[in-house]
Write a structure and sequence with these properties.
With 878 residues, the chain is α/β, with parallel strands linked by helices. The chain is built from 27 helices and 29 strands. The strands form 10 sheets. The protein has a 4-stranded antiparallel β-sheet with strand order 6-5-14-16.
Length: 878
């Protein structure tokens, strides 16, 4: 079978991905093997592939492919998240384009549209993952709102409610006026915003000249003020405590009160307290019973009747108008520019409105403790471990979780209300009616089952995804089924640090609460993908390339290599498209190396001249494999790939193949060809987790012999570490250095590589160079090697380790130029020796530095002294 001169990624990727699917290589069923399980962080059904997904899923695929090759029963469960807020917003926008208003639809009709949208667009990202080579078990694809998973969410709610860990109450929440729903603290993105600080005069009641000035960024909320607070230690306001001031524009009176919370240095030292519109004011309102709390904003952020003025105006328009009204009324003292943090909704980018609202909450304290313990004691490992302290801080200060959302898309809260607004929690209308009857204790109910209504709210998306590692294996539907018993707990979770608390912590809580054990063992936290100048990649900045476009340009293998080359665990990835180009070049390098080996003709009568070289590369391969395995165990995938890259590009292509390849149009001996083919097959297996497509393509070449349809690289045995011959490796490094030095001599003196040279060797180290003569001759174009015991006059000389080498150059040498070169090198070495001596003569350094560092400096000194002596002898000879 001939092989194309150029590698064609597109053709190869489509062919082999279809082949893997057809032969069910990704599918897993419980058996006697050790399971290795990953559940995908389910991307939103609204999502398309972005660079963060590329990184995250490449890492997962590398881990799953390696485990599969190591004989484990590898199962990577894919799926998508229904993403309540984001999806509902998409559907609402789609309907608006069609001239349909959500408010004009029934809940059932709206959900029909939502399901249609999900079926049409919800699987795009999973199809894109296939282009990347993701070897997910697509037969196991799950969706957080499919029937069984939704039922699990309802069962979970009822379970926690019965334990007394779910309650309903009025609390201050983060309100998204665009999504018209509450959201959790973790869904609020804080950004520094340029604002105005308005200084407003509140006149003491009955006075025209006595007033306090408050500074606020939100003059549109003054109508909801409940009090003005000062610090009790602030002498400026002692005589005003207990007195009343009048709210400008509306004339309502409020009291001046004192609390240590007030910062005397901020603004004017006076704080207007608006309990319904600020979380800190809310706490003061509770503390001093400043009820009723006036909520002057509707759910869409417009002023309502309680505001008394500007009713129906948007909050930001009202802000400008009220500022003008205050100025006209003589209540606006001044306005200053001001920068402060403002919360934005992660999903809609609307400015968050703190709002007192009747919501459902989960008590978190009891749930958090086992999840905290399991990370602190190492049962669940966070990688890198720098995140443990952050995790601990969050879990020790965890707040109750607001799980209700004022949406229609999502699992509906299983609470049922009778006509008097009394409520029960139950799975169905029938069960709810039976519960009302039970609570009536024999008294006949005045309403029928049809008269009760279900809560309109749905549950937070994270309340379904926190069950993901359990629910994907139907652990709630059938707690004793083969899948949950075999695959749970899973092995590795790969995700982003920003959802450590959103999702990871909550999954650990759910695992302990519902399964009695952790959901996974290792959590690999990737960094954020940034551009090469450090900005986070985003659509708004226009600095995020299209991943599918990158795959089309550089091939999936090239992009995978490019992503991993620059992604150390937990550290941000400074992405540059040049990395993908490097990945593509690496694929081409492997392809061309294979073409070279495939083109060798064999002469079975030839003896093997490469025994030493073959033994070296086998040892070098095992040495590199040891390093790669160590990096994998530490989840340093970037370093594992770099070590693989260097082994293939440098050791195999640049050195080994150059050492063993036959001369142009000459045959190779059978043993060398056989060993090289075996090495190449091992390299393909080593690279497969990183570069699945090109490795599978080459693995099926006839060079490796006939294979049946199931003998594929994807399930071939991953290389196993063999013995490492340390002395042989050291010798080979000496030979490589020697060849480089000879090439350097040629470059300095501009001697053509085609011109054969002689070489004299004065061995002082005991190294047996005779075993490497053919390598030295071949790589450095040496036609004669003589072992000597003294200096050789009229020769270029250099040291490699303790051994001295001479290249006779009588006809090629420019005496004056050589003297000048050696003098410069001597000056450099003498300066270097001086700096090393300074360190070693410093008693503090010698006493305090680590022993190996001091020893290293002494070795540098000895090496420099030896080289100086050699150069001086060479100068004398010249």
């Amino acid at each position: 079978m001939s092989i194309a001169t150029k590698y064609n990624p597109k053709e190869t990727e489509e062919k082999w991905y279809s082949y893997w699917l057809e032969h069910k290589f990704f599918h897993s069923e419980p058996d006697e093997r050790e399971p290795y399980t990953i559940v995908i962080p389910p991307p939103n059904v609204t999502g398309v592939l972005h660079m963060g997904h590329m990184l995250n899923n490449t890492i997962q695929d590398v881990l799953i492919r390696k485990a599969r090759m190591q004989g484990k029963n590898a199962c990577w469960v894919p799926g998508t998240d229904h993403a309540s807020i984001a999806t509902e917003a998409k559907v609402v926008a789609m309907l608006k384009e069609q001239g349909i208003n959500k408010a004009d639809l029934s809940r059932e009709k709206f959900l029909e549209h939502a399901w249609e949208w999900k079926e049409k667009y919800g699987g795009i990202i999973l199809e894109q993952l296939k282009k990347l080579g993701a070897s997910c078990d697509w037969d196991r694809t799950r969706f957080t709102m499919e029937d069984d998973l939704s039922e699990a969410v309802i069962d979970c709610f009822i379970h926690l409610y019965k334990k007394g860990w779910i309650y309903r109450g009025y609390r201050m929440v983060n309100w998204d006026p665009l999504g018209k729903t509450s959201i959790s603290d973790e869904e609020v993105i804080r950004k520094e915003v340029n604002q105005k600080l308005y200084y407003i005069k509140y006149f003491v009641t009955g006075s025209t000249d006595k007033y306090v000035t408050i500074a606020t960024t939100r003059p549109e909320t003054i109508m909801a003020d409940a009090a003005v607070f000062v610090n009790p230690a602030d002498e400026r306001f002692k005589d005003l405590l207990g007195k009343k001031v009048t709210i400008p524009l509306i004339g309502r009176e409020i009291e001046i009160m004192a609390d240590e919370y007030v910062d005397m240095e901020f603004g004017t030292g006076c704080l207007k307290v608006t309990p319904a519109h600020d979380i800190n004011d809310y706490e003061l309102g509770i503390k001093y019973n400043l009820t009723p709390f006036l909520d002057i904003l509707d759910d869409d952020g417009k002023l309502n009747e309680k505001a008394e003025i500007l009713i129906g105006e948007d909050r930001f328009i009202a802000r400008k108008k009220i500022a003008k009204m205050l100025e006209e009324a003589g209540n606006l003292e001044k306005v200053e520019d001001y920068k402060s943090q403002v919360g934005f909704s992660e999903r809609t980018d609307a400015v968050i409105e703190p709002k007192v609202s009747l919501q459902w909450f989960v008590k978190m304290k009891e749930l958090a403790q086992p999840a905290l313990d399991s990370v602190v004691n190492g049962e669940v490992k966070l990688i890198p471990d720098k995140f443990i302290n952050t995790y601990r801080h969050w879990m020790e200060n965890v707040r109750d979780w607001n799980i209700s959302r004022q949406l229609w898309w999502g699992q509906r809260i299983p609470a049922w209300y009778n006509p008097k607004d009394e409520w029960v929690v139950a799975k169905t209308r029938e069960e709810a009616y039976e519960e009302f009857k039970r609570q009536a204790n024999g008294t006949e109910l005045s309403f029928s089952a049809n008269d009760i209504r279900q809560d309109d709210d749905v549950m937070d998306t994270w309340f379904s995804s926190w069950l993901w590692p359990i629910s994907v294996f139907d652990g709630f539907k059938n707690p004793d089924n083969p899948d949950i018993n075999y695959y749970y707990p899973t092995n590795d979770l790969v995700t982003a640090p920003e959802i450590l608390f959103f999702w990871v912590a909550r999954m650990i809580m759910a695992g302990h609460e519902f399964m009695g054990k952790k959901p996974f063992t290792n959590v690999y936290l990737t960094g954020i993908v940034r551009d090469k100048i450090g900005r986070k990649m985003s659509k708004s900045l226009g600095n995020s390339p299209d991943p599918i476009g990158l795959i089309e340009q550089y091939g999936a293998d090239g992009v995978r290599v490019g992503m991993l080359m620059s992604s150390p665990a937990g550290n941000d990835l400074m992405f540059d498209e040049a990395y993908c180009e490097q990945g593509r070049n690496f694929a081409n390098k492997v392809w061309n190396a294979f073409r070279l080996v495939k083109g060798w003709e064999v002469d079975r009568n030839l003896e093997n001249p490469n025994v030493q070289t073959i033994a070296w590369f086998e040892s070098r391969f095992n040495e590199a494999l040891t390093e790669i395995e160590h990096n994998f165990k530490q989840y340093r995938l970037s370093e594992a790939l770099t070590a693989s890259y260097k082994l293939v590009w440098d050791d195999f292509c640049s050195w080994y193949l150059e050492m063993v390849k036959p001369a142009y149009q000459q045959p190779v001996d059978a043993e060398t060809r056989k060993a090289t083919i075996q090495f190449f097959e091992q390299i393909l297996r080593l690279l497969h987790p990183f570069m699945p497509f090109i490795t599978e393509e080459l693995y099926h070449d006839e060079l490796f012999g006939a294979r049946n349809e199931k003998e594929c690289c994807i399930v071939a045995q991953y290389p196993v570490i063999g013995s490492v011959h340390e002395e042989l490796l050291k010798e080979a490094e000496l030979i490589k250095t020697l060849v480089s030095e000879i090439r350097n001599v040629r470059n300095i003196r501009q001697i053509s590589p085609k011109e054969a040279l002689g070489l004299n060797i004065n061995v002082q180290s005991g190294t047996d160079y005779s075993k490497w003569l053919n390598v030295i001759s071949k790589l450095a174009n040496i036609n004669e090697i003589i072992f000597v015991t003294e200096k050789v006059a009229g020769a270029a000389n250099f040291l490699v380790g303790k051994d001295e080498f001479f290249i006779p150059l009588a006809q090629n040498i420019d005496i004056e130029a050589e003297k000048e070169r050696l003098t410069k090198e001597l000056e450099y070495l003498e300066g270097f020796l001086k700096s090393v001596d300074a360190k070693l003569n410093n008693e503090r350094f010698v006493q305090n530095a680590k022993a190996d560092i001091v020893e290293n400096e002494r070795n540098k000194k000895a090496d420099a002294e030896s080289k100086i002596a050699t150069i001086k002898e060479s100068l004398a000879a010249l």
